[in-house]
Amino acid sequence: MARKISNRRKIIMTVLAWSIGFLIFFPILWTIILSFKTEGDAIKTPLQVLSSHWTFESYALVQERSNYFRHFMNSVIISFGSVILALVIGIPSAWAMAFVPGKGTKNVLMWMLSTKMMPAVGVLIPIYLMFRDWGLLDTRTGLIIVLCLMNLPIVIWMLYTYFKEIPSEILEAARMDGAGLRSEILYVLTPMAVPGIASTLLLNVILSWNEAFWTLNLTAAKAAPLTAFIAAYSSPEGLFYAKLSAASTLAIAPILILGWFSQKQLVRGLTFGAVK
Amino acid sequence: MGQIELKGVTKSFGDVQVIPPLDLHIGEGEFVVFVGPSGCGKSTLLRLIAGLEDVSGGHIEIDGKDATDLPPAKRSLAMVFQSYALYPHMSVRKNIAFPLKMAKADQATIDAKIENAARILNLSDYLHRRPGQLSGGQRQRVAIGRAIVREPAAFLFDEPLSNLDAALRVNMRLEISELHQKLKTTMVYVTHDQVEAMTMADKIVVLHAGVIEQVGSPLELYRSPRNKFVAGFIGSPKMNFVEGAEAAKHNAHTIGIRPEHINVSATEGAWKGTVGVSEHLGSDTFLHVDTEFGLINVRGGGEIDLHAGDDVWLSPDLSQLHKFDAAGLAI
User: How much is the ipTM here?
Assistant: First the structure.
């Protein structure tokens, strides 16, 4: 028998859900509001949200002081580049683990996940030294490689979970039809897994976009993405909340818009494997 | 083209041997059905022939050449799967064309073969559709179409009708039989449904726990089962077995009599019993009769007017009696 939910319960649950949603979104909303205030208004307590003056001056100043477009392009190239590279490596790896598992497959999967549990700072010095010696410091290539490595376990896990849902008979049929390994992955598996691959791509682009530890430590000026652009406003000159908020808003706006338009894909990406 | 020879083939999964050493010859153009209960190894055997599973021992020859270590694509076999295994992102045309594309056939050949297969299988109007827009029967026809265009040495069918409803299954059964007559290509067909086996096969291979119990034509198996297992598995409703003193009268450990070889009378006969359940199908009547030997199934004509609780007399046709020894082998 289907569970009956009373109207009162529905209302309480809806209010609770909206409240939690608002609480989670509040810091972003706060940042956006501050970005339209003067520096003086931004540090006033209590903040006058509606009554005080609204202005674009922080945005104008941020534009004047830094090259937003260059940081934006770096973010796009680094985040998409690292995820596409991770997909190129991850798709065949996930295929192997999902369809021709060996005795150690589960252990390999767990080991990959365990690397995500290690604090990144633990490997900062060796990676920094390697990057310095190989001339990868402050380069997009260097960041693409390091972010690809950071996201690879999640990419492989997500693809593995998705591939497990694809009936192996279809791949066997492709094998019977004369498809070699390359054709099987390229013409059968990948097109069938497009929704899963898209979800993986989106989620990992967001993670890469927001990644700050490596981008701040391995870049200076040339390859600095938007995270470094934000950090530039929490500067030794002192904290300028309005300008920092304007920079943050500019940095998160593209990924927020991308996330908004692709929320269905994202939810699917985070829940596949949960429901057959 | 289309001879398959299994020589001492074995298959183990870990320490468990699912197919002990097995020899089998499948002749050119034959329609061979592997039949047996669930878990008897029939699908595994088919997958070994297809190359989708590696053999643990022995050899597989196709048209006289050792194919044991060949990948599936190099065995010139085509397979139709239980779940159709169509490519959901491709249209029917692209599904059928896929094996030809993989074989790098030119576009004119691909088009001609698709048209031909679509005509044979009545799929011409659906070529632009995706598998998701087709009924179960149409999907199965697409799967068969994909197999036909390869012009394989043999077709392998892995329970292809199991996902279809009863009426469609009968139609598709006929279509596959007609296809075999038209193409005259070797077909190896796996099913657990002995009616499919009886109606379609030139040769039935009855499997039980990975072992071939008997190989023969449908009527050979029906008339002269080699052991109790085959006798019980082939024929519907299944054969009745009687042990003890009644069997001893016929110098056997067990006697078997098919439901259709028992006469039923309300007044006289050899075995007395009471009707437990009666099933009236119009054309036939199935009676489940409780006797001193246990439950005996009887198949009679549609005119029989007996119902649950009626006392009846059963008379087995002694010329149709099957006798088995203590080991279950036919005497």
Answer: 0.83
CATH of region B4-230, choose from 3.40.50.300, 3.30.2130.10, 3.40.30.10, 1.10.10.10: 3.40.50.300
For chain B, the residues whose C-beta falls within 8 A of a C-beta of chain A are 50, 52, 71-73, 77-79, 81-83, 85-89, 98-99, 102-103, 143, 146, 150
**Which residues of chain B make contact with A168, given a CB cutoff of 8 A?**
none
For A92, B52, B78, the CA distances from A100, given in Å and listed in that order, are 11, 12, 22
Query: Sign of torsion, CA B126 B131 B136 B141?
Result: positive
Question: Do residues B256 and B321 make contact, with C-beta atoms less than 8 angstroms apart?
Answer: yes
pTM of the model: 0.78
Provide, as residue numbers in chain A, all residues whose Cβ is less than 8 Å from the Cβ of B85.
Answer: 167, 169-170, 172-173
What residues of B are in contact with residue A194 (Cβ under 8 Å)?
89
Q: Do A167 and B83 touch (CB under 8 A)?
A: yes
Query: What digits encode the pLDDT tens for the residues A215-238?
Result: 888 888 888 888 888 887 776 666
Tell me which of A176, A184, A186 to substitute to probe the interface with B (most B C-beta atoms closer than 10 Å): A176
H-helix or E-strand spanning residue B94:
helix B92-102
Could A167 and B77 be called an inter-chain contact, meaning their C-beta atoms sit closer than 8 Å? no
User: pLDDT of B14-61, one tens digit each?
Assistant: 888 888 998 999 999 999 999 998 888 899 999 999 999 999 999 999
